[in-house]
TrEMBL record:
Keywords: Pyruvate, Thiamine pyrophosphate. Residues 192-319 form the Thiamine pyrophosphate enzyme central domain. Residues 3-115 form the Thiamine pyrophosphate enzyme N-terminal TPP-binding domain. The keyword Iron does not apply. Residues 383-529 form the Thiamine pyrophosphate enzyme TPP-binding domain. It comes from Isoptericola cucumis. Gene3D superfamilies: 3.40.50.970, TPP-binding domain. This is Pyruvate dehydrogenase. Belongs to the TPP enzyme family. PANTHER family: PYRUVATE DEHYDROGENASE [UBIQUINONE] (PTHR42981:SF2).
Length: 579
């Protein structure tokens, strides 16, 4: 018996291993939603905003490695998906989005809610096509799935509601292409040999490692030992390479800490390993640089490149490591590791000691307490902004924990919807949303989603009543902060109002118990932590321009009558200055 386009589409998704579709129902989506209702093995997850649907699907794909799906109804509905899809696509996550469309006879007539999703989503996807006839569906859907998994990235299917109700003429066609094992991308021998020669000749080698090293951790550490190289990492590389790493020197960039910045700039040879680190101002322009990446388009687009190696990191190091002679001189490595240890103790650790009576609570101290209380295999989802900083510096990876965020796209409000996707994908795992008050308030309605499905998501709200990262950016530019502060909001009461057990913590001594009680509770919990709004992230290397910016901003603040705020900010941050 012939099936409808909607039914065939849902069957294809089930065959691809999809367990759920995140979205909001709407008339143009009705055939798809009803097909989900009648199909075993797949569910509809009703979120409160389509942007959250896309973020949830992204986290689902990230923790499982499989295809995840979101959907939006015609016009405004699917337009809301775009921010989360941008994030998923830039993070290389296999997500398929169903963008339903107005009735096909009305396309091009400026009909009610008319947009052109097949055009709009081009920049946020690796595949975007419209299903105009039922005959297209089987092959185009298979192609969309293949593109999403192979890139990996976002594939978008635009589907007019009337087409979704049509019958598929070739209903006996195979619904899915059998999955293939990933191909091996092996670099050219000459490039590997050139890099080995450079490492053997260099006196001081530093490795900077990113997410592309996933699956090659042991080989990276072997290379570090052979080359006597300090190992720095990007934020996405942290969970891969930082733990149990005697060569660790921390991060660089705006969120950075430790001696990574110095290790990169003082090296004779910098090797970028599986990273497309975007902040070129933190990369040295006068150090010979090699780069290993599976994506050739990444090679040399951020900084100077002397030795390109195109290939998978694991395959490259399988060929490279046997050619590298173990260095006897370990002075550079010891100096950078010792400096990193000192900085971690004197600077990064400064805010986490002797602050049990300080109010408002130091966010660094709260992050440490959360890190020590959370499960060894917890999934942390982290809002963009200052929460990225505290997560980068104080959450401890161990090979089993995951830290998920909008680390490339940099969107606000990702933590809660990411947590929803992670909780659905791995229901037996502890999921902690590390949310800022700014990010949480942006998609506040998703608390209702958490309550509706009784998801065991633990929402930790760092409430400083300000957009802290934006405040810092203004100060660096020599501007007093303006438009960054929010009125006081009691998020505990908001949580309670939607039926989520919630507490508000204003004293540091109460943190440990609040975290333990919340994390141990079955179902959802919200822990609001009132944190110091003047606690700012200090980069690992402060330029003269940044110092002038701070000084100018503080002078403007004083002449504007803000002397008390300036002194408060100084007291909150002096101990965290690099020195």
């Amino acid at each position: 018996m012939a099936r409808t386009v909607a039914e065939h589409l849902v069957d294809q998704l089930v065959a691809a291993g999809v367990k759920r579709i995140y979205g909001i129902v709407g008339d143009s989506l009705n055939p798809v939603v009803d097909a989900v209702r009648r199909t075993e093995g797949i569910d509809w997850v009703h979120v409160r905003h389509e942007e959250a649907a896309a973020f949830a699907a992204a986290a689902d794909a990230e923790v499982t490695g499989g295809l995840a799906v979101c959907a939006g109804s015609c016009g405004p509905g699917n337009l809301h998906l775009i921010n989360g899809l941008y994030d998923a696509n830039r993070s290389g996550l296999p997500v398929l989005a169903i963008a339903s469309h107005i009735p096909s006879p009305q396309i091009g007539t400026k009909f009610f809610q008319e947009t052109h999703p097949d055009r709009i989503f081009n920049e946020a996807s690796v595949f975007s096509e419209m299903i105009s006839t039922a005959a297209q569906l089987p092959r185009v859907t298979r192609s969309a799935i293949q593109h999403a998994l192979a890139a990996p990235g976002v594939a978008v299917l635009t589907l007019p509601g009337d087409v979704a109700d049509q019958r598929v003429p070739d209903d006996d066609a195979p619904i899915l292409v059998p999955g293939a094992c990933p191909a091996r991308v092996v670099p050219n021998d000459a490039d590997v040999e050139a890099l080995a020669t450079a490492i053997n000749k260099a006196k001081k080698v530093t490795l900077f490692v990113g997410a592309g090293a996933r699956g090659a951790r042991d080989a990276v550490l072997e290379l570090a030992d052979l080359a006597a190289a300090p190992v720095g990492h990007s934020l996405r590389g942290k969970e891969i390479i930082q733990y149990e790493n005697p060569h660790d020197v921390g991060m660089s960039g705006l969120l950075g800490y430790g001696s990574c910045h110095e290790a990169m700039h003082d090296a004779d040879l910098l090797v970028l390993v599986g990273t497309d680190f975007p902040y070129d101002s933190f990369l040295p322009a006068d150090v010979r640089t090699a780069q290993i990446d599976i994506d050739a388009s990444h090679l040399g687009r951020r900084t100077r490149l002397d030795l390109p190696v195109h290939g998978d990191v694991g395959e490259a190091l399988r060929l490279l490591n046997p050619l590298v002679k173990r260095k006897k001189d370990r002075k550079f490595l010891r100096a950078m590791v010792d400096k990193h240890a000192g900085l971690m103790t004197k600077v990064v650790g400064a805010y986490t000691r002797n602050v049990e009576k300080h109010t408002p609570i130091h966010p660094e101290y709260a992050a440490v307490q959360l890190d020590e209380t959370a499960a060894d295999d917890a999934v942390f989802t982290v809002d963009t902004g200052m929460n990225n900083v505290w997560a980068a510096r104080y959450l401890t990876p161990n090979g089993r924990r995951r830290v998920i965020g909008s680390f490339i796209h940099g969107s606000m409000a990702n933590a809660l919807p990411h947590a929803i996707g992670a909780a659905f994908a791995q229901p037996g795992r502890q999921v902690v949303a590390l949310a800022g008050d700014g990010g949480l308030s942006m998609l506040l309605g998703e608390l209702i989603t958490v309550r509706t499905y009784d998801l065991p998501v633990k929402i930790v709200v760092f409430n400083n009543a300000t957009l802290g990262m934006v405040k810092l950016e203004m100060l660096v530019e020599g501007l007093p902060s303006y438009g960054t502060d929010s009125p006081p909001v009691d998020y505990r009461n908001i949580g309670l109002a939607v039926g989520i057990p919630s507490v508000r913590v204003e004293r540091p001594r109460d943190l440990r118990k609040a975290f333990k009680d919340g994390l141990d509770r079955k179902g959802p919990a919200l822990i609001e932590v009132v944190t110091d709004p003047n606690a700012l992230s200090i980069p690992p290397s402060i330029t003269s321009g940044q110092i002038r910016g701070f000084a100018t901003a503080m002078t403007k603040q004083i002449f504007g009558g803000g002397m008390g705020e300036v002194m408060s900010m100084a007291r909150s941050n002096l101990r965290n200055l690099p020195r």
